[in-house]
Amino acid sequence: MRPERWQTEPGRLALMLAVGAALGAAAHAQAADTATPIQHLVVIYQENVSFDHYFATYPRAANPPGEPAFHARPGTPSVNGLTAALLTNNPNAAQPFRLDRSRAATCDQDHNYKAEQQGYNAGLVNKAVESMGTGAASRSGNTPCSPTDVMGYFDGNTVTALWNYAQYFAMNDNHFGTTFGPSTPGALNLVSGQTHGATPSCALVASGCTATSDFLSVGGSVDVIQGTVISDAQPAFDDCSSRETVAMSGPNVGDLLNRQGITWGFFQGGFKPTAMKNGKAVCGASHTGSDGRPKGDYIPHHQPFQYYRSTSNPHHLPPTSPAMVGRSDQANHQYDLSDFWTAVAAGNLPAVSFLKAAAFQDGHAGYSDPLAEQRFIVDTINRLQQLPQWKDTAVVIAYDDSDGWYDHVMPPIVNTSATSEDALTSEGACGGSNPDGIQGRCGYGPRLPLLVISPWANQNFVDHSLTDQSSILRFIEDNWRLGRLGGGSFDALAGSIENMFDFRHPLPRRVFLDPNTGLVTGLDDEGNVSH
Q: Do residues 196 and 178 make contact, with C-beta atoms less than 8 angstroms apart?
């Protein structure tokens, strides 16, 4: 943190004088508790989207008849998206193509640790179709899928809300997954910057599972190698896990927050049990997914804190009261999404909140889609903006992995690896040799969207600073003065997301969107509800 922004006494006094009338004295009553004016952070952690999949042509949308129109505000900055050359003369086996709203529901792509590395092909970024494209036997509802679908992207006529949030707040076009691979590594990197230290188990798998102290393979697919998680083994400390499991060692950000007495929680749709059977929780809530099939609301491997004994709630016990949400009781900071809003209604918004949608709204291709995701994101942010705490709140929208969707930017490799599952630069290799380092953490991985919505966010701003998933972890550590996790956590390498904020010139802006169309329904720079 640069001293002139917040730390110096003259800077602090100037800031208070500048924003006191706009945000009210209450915004500063707790200012000494944090390193920035942000007193409440809400991280909306969504599923499986590369940057180009949502922002390839930002801020230019096709605007065909019958779809919500998007027109960029004057002065909108450009992003590192798909140039005309990449759109028409792409080195991959198929050219990128626009997906309209009628094709919002797509198939899941191959986003395994090794497959993604193969797709980037030592920086040539030309093997997306062969390595990550979904086979033709797959279907999204009644629509057959092709490996070339991996080149598809949406624009502001489908992911309209995210494009509009970028218009009025801040986004980053140089943000990456901390490592290659699917959801579990992405979830773990968010809360600990660490995928090493795994103890695997086959306890829940009837057959086809091989586990040793540092290796886990199921049906030929490797989940853990040399003690590092590279795929989607489920959490060991969760009654609702249904296949191979992993227990993680070491601390996570929840441990640091507990040590400092900071309120926090992870809130996930479907976490609340529908029954108890033989003393164990049953997670039976479900909705119809975008593919027309029932999908369970709760996905255990999307819940990172359940991998750690210290921060787990194995039986999915509820909080003892709304006042205890965010504090240590039988729920141990792990909650159903409904508990978040119950606590908020009681005036108890935790300092740090991680929100995870029920599966049908988390944006994951195959069972969710951008339109279902949009409804969740917009409903959430519309409600948050009406809270009295909005004046000192920041919302971060981030993603756990790319799903394998094509993105044209080769990620910088800040950590090399050499296992049988690495294949970035050659078979068995990700970069140069790393004989003394932790293996299985080839990264950074694919580029992902990152947005910040806040009265303190830069306006209509694109940040090009290099960041990764653990940069969100770093912001929490820095803002609440928690220190670093250590033990090889990527938080030590993470770039800062602070450039997405303007702590000198806050604007008490609230932008209300239609959850169905993503269009602006109310814009207020004075703090009054206008929708």
A: no
d(CA 118, CA 157) in angstroms, rounded, equals 32
pLDDT, tens digit, 9 for 90 and up, residues 126-156: 999 999 998 766 676 777 889 999 999 999 9
| Phi, psi (deg, nearest 5) at residue 253 | -65, -25
Q: Which fold has domain 34-524?
A: Alkaline Phosphatase, subunit A (3.40.720)
Where along the chain do its domains lie? 34-524
CA distance 132 to 117: 10
| pLDDT confidence band for 6 (50 / 70 / 90) | very low
* CA proximity to 23, closest of 3, 35, 11, 39: 39
Angle formed at CA 97 by CA 93 and CA 102, multiple of 5 degrees = 135
Residue 24 has pLDDT above 80, yes or no: no
**Backbone phi, psi, residue 361, to 5°:** -120, 15
Q: Which residues sit opposite 286 in a β-bridge?
A: 296
Task: Pick the closest to residue 179 from 91, 95, 265, 114 (CA basis).
Answer: 114
Q: 181 with 132: CB under 8 angstroms?
A: no
